Amino acid sequence: METRIDLMQNAFGAKLAKRLYAVHALIQQTALPHPTQNLVMLRASQINGCGHCIDLHTKEAAAAGETATRLNLVAGWRHSTVFTEEEQAALALTDEATRLADASEGVSDETWARAAKYYTEDELIALVTLIAMINATNRMAVTLNQLGGSYEPGLMAAFVEN
């Protein structure tokens, strides 16, 4: 399989990628913990089967100090002991918000209440936006057949700065 369109090599695609990254940069400025942000992006990417995004977010999280044990257990977060209750709440919200088509009610009141127990309103807005943005990015990357395996930490930030 080959990449259908390389967003970074297309002028419009590059502009779009930079604007999407700007939303991510704004979310990084919130009080939502960076490790939680990394876990959420990785989890949504796993659910959506986005090899490019799994590669990118795993490597960026590792470069930021995340442990291999935690990264390896994100897919089985419900059956592991390495995530805090706050992280579990964010991962539960990620699962339900990512699997909207699979759940007749969408995000349950129980899952929302669990997240609201640990996060402020601003952090919840950041979390919901992060989940929405990574899902959009996953769908773009999968549709355009962006392949995983060759990403190097810092490449996206370097691209955006240019």
Automatic annotation (TrEMBL):
Superkingdom of origin organism: Bacteria
Domain Carboxymuconolactone decarboxylase-like per the UniProt entry, residue ranges: 25-96
Pfam families, A to Z: CMD
InterPro entries tied to this protein: AhpD-like, AhpD_core, CMD-like
SUPFAM superfamilies: AhpD-like
Alphabetized PANTHER family for the sequence: 4-CARBOXYMUCONOLACTONE DECARBOXYLASE FAMILY PROTEIN (AFU_ORTHOLOGUE AFUA_6G11590), BLL7811 PROTEIN
Protein name: AhpD family alkylhydroperoxidase
